[in-house]
């Protein structure tokens, strides 16, 4: 076995892969949340639709997105491999259970992660997959309509937002005098419709609760796996894990469906 | 013999050997003194079992002073029972209530096969130690004490790691039956000291390789090991070992830390 293979087949190597893919997914959450905050702009989805187009068409981001899909798959597959290994390491379980003091989220990473995987699949099917459909034929099942925005470049004011009739369009931005026109896929409308259903909103809130607990353990645990031992920084990592990844980010994401549902 | 006032019900795991299937057998422990240790209570129960002509309950024990690492027992869902930072021999019956039912199981791990009843084979730990948990030195005259300066904090931290008695409670408590706390303590106690530097990076690789070979689970930094360790070995050891391991694998030249194969 080559040195490289030996390293990544060891228990520590597999944990390293979990830690690195996990941290990469964490960084994506920051980008995703900051972009999605544009959902809170009262601009008929102008900023959000521009952002959605940028994320799917800007080449460097497309490259990173493939890395992201790969990370999700690798993180899940390795989690499964490690869980199977761990089950094998204790063939007979304890009749009296396990009452040792330990972190609840750490103990339930597998369940929390499974909820997240189901969520990611559904979430991507409903938004990512629909957005990537380029079928403009009459009987196409998922067609996201286009919208035309006109904006005054001097005042920054949105002059008009108009739904375009069904048909084939391309993303375009052009300027005539002081007025900028943008034609973009109206993913914003898809979001609005989705977040009108109470069960969909509830599903999002539950999934984001799972995300909170998953990251409460996962973020700081990944640094331990990487071998980061420094008294000065351990506290900082812990605080970032708790405040940013377990509280602010899940709350920010959960606020979107909840606010849309309540203010529809 | 026994003149206490506690009466307990014990559910004890009985297993003939590693090949046969085991089962729980219920025993009454009567007239138990709250001042007895848990092992003394088992001695009393064993006496009554032997008087009936049956085979006594097998369990590991040796020094009964909490320092040898021989006693084990998974008591009511916790290794070494409900108290923090003690071994089973240091656990007293006053930690239980009169009339309580106590479930006693052996350490459960594929790498720790049951020898008989509550006694498990922990020689996997010995093999991990033999893989690199030592410092090679040439024999000769006795070196002068304090010849090699060691900062106090380093000496203290190395000593904390060295207090591991290898009882296996970390493996027993871990939801993944991982031996990372044990291995990391053994790696740390030598890796932190100047005398341990020569073999530092080959040691960590050999010991981790042996740990994986023995069939222990993978660490999820859950922290049950740290909470149950009778010697309070900290999770920091695990991070330190990971650091040494990845350092050896990725950031150092291979020839300097090749595993002797």
TrEMBL record, chain A:
InterPro entries given in the database record: Cytochrome_b-558, SQR/QFR_C/D
GO cellular component: membrane
Keywords from the UniProt entry: Membrane, Transmembrane, Transmembrane helix
Gene3D superfamilies in UniProt: Fumarate reductase/succinate dehydrogenase, transmembrane subunit
Superkingdom of this protein's organism: Bacteria
Membrane-spanning parts: 12-33, 63-84, 105-124, 198-219, 240-262
Keyword Transmembrane helix attached: yes
Record-linked NCBIfam families: sdhC_b558_fam
The protein's name: Succinate dehydrogenase
From TrEMBL, chain B:
GO function terms (MF aspect): 2 iron, 2 sulfur cluster binding; electron transfer activity
GO BP terms in the entry: aerobic respiration; respiratory electron transport chain
InterPro entries named among the record's database cross-references: 2Fe-2S_ferredoxin-like_sf, 2Fe2S_fd_BS, 4Fe4S_Fe-S-bd, Beta-grasp_dom_sf, Helical_ferredxn, SDH/FRD_Iron-Sulfur, Succ_DH/fum_Rdtase_N
Cofactor: [2Fe-2S] cluster; [3Fe-4S] cluster
Pfam families listed in its UniProt record: Fer2_3 (PF13085), Fer4_8 (PF13183)
Family under the similarity heading: Belongs to the succinate dehydrogenase/fumarate reductase iron-sulfur protein family.
Name of the protein: Succinate dehydrogenase/fumarate reductase iron-sulfur subunit
Organism (species): Mucilaginibacter hurinus
